[in-house]
Automatic annotation (TrEMBL), chain A:
Protein name in UniProt: ABC3 transporter permease protein domain-containing protein
One Pfam assignment: MacB_PCD
Residues covered by the ABC3 transporter permease C-terminal domain: 276-382
Taxonomic placement: Bacteria, Bacillati, Actinomycetota, Actinomycetes, Micrococcales
Gene Ontology CC: plasma membrane
Residues passing through the membrane, by range: 22-42, 272-295, 315-342, 362-391
Highest taxon above the source species: Bacteria
UniProt membrane topology term: Multi-pass membrane protein
From TrEMBL, chain B:
Cellular component annotations (GO), alphabetically ordered: membrane protein complex; plasma membrane
GO MF annotation list: ATP binding; ATP hydrolysis activity; transmembrane transporter activity
Domain of life assignment: Bacteria
Protein name, entry field: ABC transporter domain-containing protein
Stored InterPro entries: AAA+_ATPase, ABC_transporter-like_ATP-bd, ABC_transporter-like_CS, ABC_transpr_LolD-like, MacB-like_ATP-bd, P-loop_NTPase
Organism: Agrococcus pavilionensis RW1
SUPFAM superfamilies listed in its UniProt record: P-loop containing nucleoside triphosphate hydrolases (SSF52540)
ABC transporter domain segment(s): 5-235
Similarity comment: Belongs to the ABC transporter superfamily.
Swiss-Prot/TrEMBL keywords: ATP-binding, Nucleotide-binding, Transport
Keyword set includes Nucleotide-binding: yes
Length: 401, 236
């Protein structure tokens, strides 16, 4: 125990004595670790942002989608209510935790005279597609019992009504039916197109009473474990075909991970990490160069320590620890600089540009931990060269000449 | 009585690239008793530093035996030898060899970094106590580079003695000092060594310094011989 504490104390003392040299040699390491940490952090953020974006479009892994077309080939309309019943029965049968029937239609917004795109979805849809609610709430089970249907709108729909917040528009008229606005979805830039979300049965009811409403065919989306996706798809397809004779039922996996071998972030991450590794190597090279030169000037001092009982191992560890302690301190400073920069409003704005309303998560811990581990590893590698030179010096010759 | 340090038939030779091996030491026999005072004189290149390496357990002889307290050093591992050197031998050097950037007290504490646990944790106190002993209680926190030559050598003496070694090896301890300061330094070295009961082996080419010892040995042609009583007497 004493040996370990004493070795660390030796290393710290050496850093203190040679602080000018150490400071100069560690600037490169600080910059290198900051660059590496920033690269890993940006890579993590980009990955999580892109994954969220892809999951918002195609569903989480694994999402299976089935289309149910009840209209016959000659154009005779089918029965969408029967299709919805079949979908709900299938979801209940297989006890799927997250599933939603889905349908699109356009309804006229009373007062504005414009059309709003209505997404008929179940409450699970918000979780399945990362649909964030900025105000109020998303659809829930209690909305099924409402006499006036619940609706969640986006900012574009509110703008059609003259702007303002959710409180200013507690009810709206859609396709001649009064609906209660329960929540506001705000996806920032690119969300100007008027949209609203309602429960499928409410939409079917409105569409039945509004002959002008043309709705798409029904579909089912289910978020299931990846290993159950293929079998689940087959079973659901079979069930729906059986329940809806004459209907066309087909489906596939729609999430981005369904495309094997496709990693859209790989080139970006390889570029970032490659750049950081080059910077790191240059920093380490500078560190080794300064350390090797300085260790030759310190032969006398190391000889003194050897004369007073320091073993070769102790000298090796002390010199190595100097390097490790130095690079860990430098790495910590580099990581702190990264975190500080990450929290600057200008950087936050730059990182969230084009993704309005997005709140950045905290600084990725994985980036900080990676930076610290790499800093220690660089210190150990860079320290091993001067440490080897140090233990080879001869004691008395070092002291006498 | 078992001597503190015993050398028997010690030789040391070094290989050369394209010639015969260099024979530096030839059949050295030496006994150093506890509390002994021995001086070794010799010309430059006579092998004094090679002998110092072996006496200080830094180097191993090519042939022959070195024993400390009757224990053959050759049978010890490198780590054990390093520990034994730290615990039993104190060095005083010609160029003081204090570590720049450290204060006087920190320099004196250096050997305690390699000692047993209790002494390591008490190193600051022990170092200050030793500096008071050599009359530098007022220079504890002064950096080594800001001390005079005499003061630096006193710090070096305090450092050599702080682990209470049984053998002090002084390599040209007055070589970098003027005559008066050198004389005072040798008085101090002798006094604190006596107080600690440590043997003192001084390697020097200064015959006046050598004459202060009870035994004066001359290293020439790789062999160690006692100086004739008449010559030793003349020195003193």
């Amino acid at each position: 125990m004493t040996d370990v504490v004493a070795a660390i104390q030796d290393a710290w003392t050496e850093l203190r004595i040679h602080r000018g040299r150490v400071l100069m040699s560690l600037i490169g390491v600080t910059v290198a670790i900051a660059a590496l940490t920033a690269s890993v952090a940006v890579g993590d953020l980009a990955r999580s942002t892109l994954v969220s974006s892809m999951e918002a479009n195609g569903g989480r892994a694994a999402t299976i989608s089935l289309w149910v077309e009840t209209s016959s080939a000659d154009g005779t309309p089918g029965d969408p209510v029967a299709a919805l019943d079949a979908i709900e029965t299938a979801v209940d049968r297989y006890r799927i935790d997250y599933a939603s029937a889905r349908m699109s239609t356009g309804l006229t917004l009373g007062g504005a005279g414009a059309s709003v795109q209505i997404e008929a979805v179940e409450p699970d849809f918000a979780v399945m597609r990362h649909l964030g609610v900025a105000d109020g709430r998303f659809l829930n089970e209690s909305d099924r019992a409402r006499l006036a249907p619940a609706v969640v709108v986006n900012r574009g729909t509110l703008e059609l009504l003259g702007g303002g917040g959710l409180d200013a528009h507690r009810t709206i008229e859609l396709g001649g039916t009064t609906a209660v606005v329960v929540g506001l979805v705000d996806r920032g830039l690119g969300d100007e197109w008027p949209q609203a979300w309602m429960l499928p049965r409410d939409v079917l009811r409105i569409a039945r009473d509004d002959p002008s409403a043309m709705h798409s065919s029904l579909s089912l989306e289910a978020w299931v474990p990846a290993e159950a996706a293929d079998e689940g798809l087959r079973m659901l397809r079979q069930d729906l075909r059986g329940a809806l004779p004459g209907a066309m039922v087909d489906g596939n996996r729609s999430d981005w991970q369904a495309f094997e071998g496709y990693d859209p972030l790989l080139p970006l991450q390889l570029t970032l990490v490659g750049t950081a590794v080059v910077i790191l190597l240059l920093g380490a090279l500078g560190l080794v160069t300064v350390a090797v030169v300085s260790i030759r000037q310190r032969v006398r001092e190391l000889g003194i320590r050897r004369a007073f009982g320091a073993s070769r191992t102790r000298i090796f560890v002390a010199v190595m620890l100097e390097s490790v302690v130095g690079t860990v301190v430098a790495g910590t400073i580099g990581i702190a600089l990264c975190i500080f920069a990450y929290r600057l409003p200008v950087v936050q704005d730059a990182l969230t540009q084009g993704i309005g309303g997005m709140v950045l998560p905290g600084f990725p811990m994985s980036a900080a931990v990676t930076g610290l581990i790499v800093a220690a590893a660089v210190g150990a590698l860079a320290g091993s060269v001067p440490a080897t030179i140090a233990v080879r010096s001869k004691v008395i010759e070092a002291i006498r000449f | 009585m078992v001597p503190l340090l015993r050398l028997r038939g010690v030789t040391r030779q070094f290989a050369t690239i394209d010639g015969p091996a260099l024979q530096i030491l030839r059949g050295i026999d030496l006994d150093v008793a506890p509390g002994d005072r021995v001086s070794i004189v010799g010309r430059s290149g006579s092998g004094k530093s090679t002998l110092l390496n072996i006496l200080g357990l830094v180097d191993q002889p090519t042939t022959g035996a070195v024993e400390l307290d009757g224990e053959p050093v050759a049978l010890m591992g490198a780590r054990a030898r390093d520990r034994l050197r730290g615990a039993s031998v104190g060095f005083v050097f010609q160029q003081f060899n204090l570590i720049e950037g450290l204060t006087a007290a920190e320099n004196v504490a250096v050997p305690l970094h390699y000692g047993a646990g209790r002494r390591y944790w008490q190193r600051a106190h022990l170092a200050r106590e030793m500096l008071h002993r050599v009359g530098l209680g007022h220079r504890l926190d002064t950096r080594a580079t800001n001390l005079s030559g005499g003061e630096q050598q006193r710090v070096a003496i305090a450092r050599a003695l702080v682990r209470r070694p049984r053998l002090i090896l002084a390599d040209e301890p007055t070589g970098a000092l003027d005559i008066e300061t050198g004389s005072r330094t040798m008085d101090l070295l002798d006094e604190v060594a006596t107080e600690a009961g440590a043997a003192l082996v001084t390697i020097t080419h200064d015959l006046a310094v050598a004459a202060r010892a009870r035994r004066v040995l001359r290293l020439a042609d790789g062999r160690l011989r006692a100086l004739e009583p008449s010559a030793a007497g003349a020195l003193s």
